[in-house]
Amino acid sequence: MTKTLARYLRKLPKKTRSIVLTSLYGITAGIAAVAFHKSIQFVFGHTIEHFSTFSTRTFLIGSFCTIIGSSLIVGLLLSNYCKDAAGSGIPQLKLAFWSDFGHVPWKVTWVKFIAGILSIGGGCSLGREGPSVQLASGVASNLAGLLGEPKQNRRHAASSGAAAGLAAAFNTPLAAITFVLEEIVQDLNSRFLGSVLLASVLGAFAVHALSEKHPALEISAVGSPDWLIYLLTPVVAAAAALVGVLFQKTSIGLRATTRKMNR
After folding, report:
1. Domain membership of residue 169 as a residue range
2. Residue 124 burial by CB count (10 A; 0-12/13-18/19+): exposed, middle or buried?
3. Are 143 and 177 in the same domain?
4. CATH number of the domain residue 190 falls in
5. How do residues 160-191 score in pLDDT, each as one tens digit?
6. CB 143 within 8 A of CB 157
7. d(CA 136, CA 138)
8. Gap between the Cα atoms of 93 and 222, Å rounded
9. Which of 136, 145, 128, 129 lies closest to 110, judged by CA?
10. Are 43 and 67 in contact, with CB atoms under 8 Å apart?
11. Segment 29-59, tens digit of pLDDT
12. Both 168 and 107 in a single domain?
């Protein structure tokens, strides 16, 4: 089936073919991100959330065993089967995008899917942004391979999949566009702008079609703010930005120090 589709796509005009491929990458990656999110919810709902309905003692014991058990399984999976699937996902995707021309091995993709479900659903304090971006990009990259794209020509698929995955993960297509262009592609005027835009929209369509239609992070309604709130808003924003910069610099510095110690 994929060979027949690949032959059909090769007959299309270049621009039309690019649009069709981007659509396929976006829809497939979006579905993968939604499946990832729903699987996390399933694991969490049948473990820690389920234990919360019992006594405090049962909750503590059950949660502890869940976290330890899932961490051990993930650790064994990553250390013995696929070390390249370790990490948050975004630095690894950037490396694949620039060093391997967007080629993300299938082994990394599905191991990231399973390990992410077990670790996040099992209660580890890890967000799903990075894993969603990497696995969605990996799905699109491997789909490109099935459709005849060589390993040296998969940046289009990788960037489209990453945008669709992030848009589907948090129902935020605009943030997905900006993030992928700034963080992965590192060029707001990149030739991938059109494909990233289309893939982000399709990723948002996927989450609306298959999942809830409300934002991933809901904020409760607030009353009408007075003038003092408006005056404090830029101060709070600046303070939050400063904390973010300090956190990033401290993390990078600590990582560099740790690497020197390991040498």
Report:
1. 2-219
2. middle
3. yes
4. 1.10.3080.10
5. 999 999 999 888 889 999 999 988 988 888 88
6. yes
7. 5
8. 39
9. 136
10. no
11. 999 999 999 999 999 999 989 998 989 899 9
12. yes
